[in-house]
């Protein structure tokens, strides 16, 4: 082989090494943030969870609206997680569903199915800030409650206490403004159970919009996973609130992964 050919081959072999050397190093993980996120991950079921729930929404003048159903979560074959809500009562809402699915790089994909729509509707952009079945929870709030990954930056704040319980405090700032209705969210994580027992969500102008609270001394537990028996979401601006009573928790029971497909919406929620 000629000297010129050998030189050309040498350059080709060196190219991947040079490219790898120029690739940016991954951002270092803040150990303080990692401690909080590891705690949160410990309270995520390895496979699945089913919570039987009762929603009660209260408007500004005291009128109430109720529905029952289940909140289900599952880790699918590719390792990503999905969460959905299935409504069983009242009869006019029976079979309605919301499905959120983690994506590799962006916010979760979310789909709504109702008997009126008769086919799944994708919720995008500003829609993620819309009301979930008329409650004070938005689609984004539900994604956060179920700990689905979102494009965000995290910073640890000084530890604090909530209802006498030591908590981690985490500030979360969305990195994709088009996929969030909030400018930041403060989460208060119970150090004992790793449950978010309080969160404060802020809008543009640093205005507090929603506050979610739960009672740390009243928890359900299954397979080492904890869930509050009651969660309250309060809309500070609209002066309304929604209470979710969690009546039952099942962790890592047999769950059909097929029911977490968009094509299955409207078929398995009964």
Helix and strand topology:
Elements: H1 3-22, H2 31-42, E1 48-58, E2 64-75, E3 81-89, E4 97-101, E5 109-113, E6 121-123, H3 139-145, E7 152-162, E8 165-174, E9 184-190, E10 196-203, E11 207-214, E12 219-222, E13 225-228, E14 230-235, E15 240-251
Antiparallel strand pairs: 1-2, 1-15, 2-3, 3-4, 4-5, 5-6, 7-8, 8-9, 9-10, 10-11, 11-14, 12-13, 14-15
Could you describe the 3D structure shown?
- The chain has 270 residues and is mainly beta.
- The chain has a single domain, classed as Lipoprotein localisation LolA/LolB/LppX (outer membrane lipoprotein receptor (LolB), chain A, Clam).
- It has three helices and 15 strands.
- The strands form two sheets. It has a 13-stranded antiparallel sheet, covered by helices on one side. Strands 12-13 form a two-stranded antiparallel ribbon.
- A hairpin with a 5-residue loop joins strand 9 and strand 10.
- It is globular and about 45 Å long.
- Mean pLDDT is 89; it is low at 3-21.
Q: What number of domains?
A: 1
Strand content: 35-45%
Order of helical and strand elements: HHEEEEEEHEEEEEEEEE
Strands, total number = 15
Profile the largest sheet: 13 strands, antiparallel
Please tell me how large the radius of gyration is: 22 Å
- Catalogue the unreliable spans: 3-21
User: Can you list the strand order of the major beta sheet?
Assistant: 6-5-4-3-2-1-15-14-11-10-9-8-7
Second CATH tier, the architecture: Clam
CA distance, first residue to last residue: 73 Å
- Count the DSSP helices: 3
Level of helix content?
Answer: 10-25%
State the CATH superfamily name. Lipoprotein localisation LolA/LolB/LppX
Helix and strand content put the structural class at: mainly beta
CATH classification class:
Mainly Beta
Overall pLDDT level: 89
């Amino acid at each position: 082989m000629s000297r010129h050919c050998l030189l050309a081959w040498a350059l080709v072999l060196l190219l991947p090494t040079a490219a790898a050397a120029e690739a940016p190093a991954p951002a270092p993980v803040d150990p303080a943030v990692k401690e909080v996120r590891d705690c949160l991950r410990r309270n995520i079921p390895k496979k699945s969870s089913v919570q039987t729930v009762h929603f009660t929404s209260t408007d500004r003048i005291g009128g109430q609206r109720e529905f029952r159903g289940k909140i289900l979560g599952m880790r699918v074959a590719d390792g990503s997680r999905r969460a959905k809500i299935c409504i069983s009562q009242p009869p006019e809402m029976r079979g309605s569903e919301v499905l959120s699915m983690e994506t590799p790089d962006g916010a979760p994909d979310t789909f709504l199915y109702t008997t009126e729509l008769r086919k799944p509707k994708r919720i995008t952009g500003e829609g993620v800030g819309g009301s979930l079945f008329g409650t004070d929870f938005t689609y984004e709030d539900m994604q956060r409650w179920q700990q689905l990954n979102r494009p965000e930056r995290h910073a640890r704040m000084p530890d604090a206490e909530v209802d006498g319980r030591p908590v981690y405090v985490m500030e979360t700032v969305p990195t994709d403004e088009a996929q969030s209705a909030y400018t930041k969210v403060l989460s208060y994580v119970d150090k004992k159970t790793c449950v978010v027992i309080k969160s404060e969500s802020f809008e543009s102008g640093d205005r507090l919009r929603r506050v979610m609270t739960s009672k740390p001394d009243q928890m359900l537990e299954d397979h080492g996973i904890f869930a509050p028996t009651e969660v309250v979401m309060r809309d500070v601006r609209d002066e309304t609130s929604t209470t979710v009573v969690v009546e039952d928790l099942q962790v890592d029971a047999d769950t059909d992964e097929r029911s977490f497909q968009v094509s299955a919406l409207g078929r398995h929620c009964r």
